[in-house]
Amino acid sequence: MLxxxxxxxHTLLKEVITDYDHVVDATMGNGNxxxxxxxxxxxxxxxxxxxxxxxxxxxxxxxxxEQGLAEQTKLxxxxxxxxxxxxxxxxxIKAAIFNLGYLPKSDKTxxxxxxxxxxxxxILLYHLTRKGRxxxxxxxxxxxxxxxxxxxxxxxxxxxxxxxxxxRYQFINQKNQPPILFCIEKK
Length: 187
Ligand code: SAM
Fold this sequence. Notes:
The protein is α/β, with parallel strands linked by helices.
């Protein structure tokens, strides 16, 4: 069976992450990607995970502690647009993931936004190492989702082919707007 967007995002991350890498979860939520990244970089790497909602940090911290993965993870209660404040000037980032939209079973008005998502992407591209990858899982069924998807599409299409490979992965015969996956790979 073909992998869905979430599964394939992890496959693409797994291919490049080693246990020495520094990586970013730009939208921590309930911590699924944070846990996956912490497992992938242990014991020598570092995960930076961001969310603007305290409940995301509390839930993710609990799960990390339960699984013995807290040590290599920094949970940051701040927007990903402020990422640069938490990295050193030339800190290499091997991979990052965004799960856009709102936190499932939570306040649907607290969503990721095109402007701040773009700011975070700009910062990440500066820090991304060669062969590094940024994964973006774009949900667009909610109010504001289409605008963000449009921004991501345009942003990715403008990146020069000489420097980046860009993949868009999407099921085109499924109902209910399944998420679309983008992968930005630095050559
Ligand atoms: N990957 C998560 C998981 O495993 O549960 C799901 C993420 S959820 C779709 C999107 C998350 O992005 C929400 O928890 C929301 O609070 C967060 N968010 C919204 N704006 C943000 C921002 N500017 N910076 C960081 N996180 C943000």
